[in-house]
């Protein structure tokens, strides 16, 4: 299955996403708590897919997408956002994110989106 990087500053979200994806046989190669760390982990592992929270400290998810896609144009990044962050998600899609999922996420929704890209 796919190698995946999870970037989210909330430990509960990272744990939930990990549980869902590992149950389907995907390998979580790294986790990041901010956009800067996500970029560095991406460079380290070059995973098949990234799940990226929009609102994170240090470097937000939108800037992290731009940083990753500038260096790795074929990166597959799925944004995860709250309803009140639609503008940021739109910006992330323009920077190269492939899709977005609105919080709260469900197992079915996350797996359906992941299947589209891996």
TrEMBL record:
- GO BP annotations listed: phosphorelay signal transduction system
Modification 4-aspartylphosphate, positions? 53
Q: Is RNA-binding one of the keywords UniProt gives this record?
A: no
Q: Does the keyword Cytoplasm apply?
A: no
Which keywords appear in this protein's UniProt record, sorted alphabetically?
A: Phosphoprotein
Cross-referenced Pfam families: Response_reg
Specify the Response regulatory domain's residue ranges. 3-118
What top-level branch of life does the organism fall under? Bacteria
Q: Which InterPro entries match?
A: Bact_response_regulator, CheY-like_superfamily, Sig_transdc_resp-reg_receiver
Protein name per the record: Stage 0 sporulation protein A homolog
Q: Which organism encodes this protein?
A: Orenia metallireducens
Lineage at the top is:
Bacteria, Bacillati, Bacillota, Clostridia, Halanaerobiales
């Amino acid at each position: 299955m796919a190698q995946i990087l999870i970037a989210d500053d909330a430990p509960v979200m990272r744990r939930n996403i990990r549980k869902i994806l590992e149950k389907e046989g995907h390998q979580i190669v790294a986790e990041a708590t901010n956009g800067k760390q996500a970029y560095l982990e991406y460079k380290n592992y070059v995973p098949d897919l990234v799940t990226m929270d929009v609102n994170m400290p240090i470097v937000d998810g939108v800037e992290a997408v731009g940083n990753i896609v500038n260096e790795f144009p074929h990166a597959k990044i799925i944004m995860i956002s709250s309803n009140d962050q639609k503008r940021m998600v739109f910006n992330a899609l323009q920077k190269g994110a492939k899709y977005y999922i609105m919080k709260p996420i469900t197992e079915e929704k996350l797996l359906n989106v992941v299947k589209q890209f891996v």
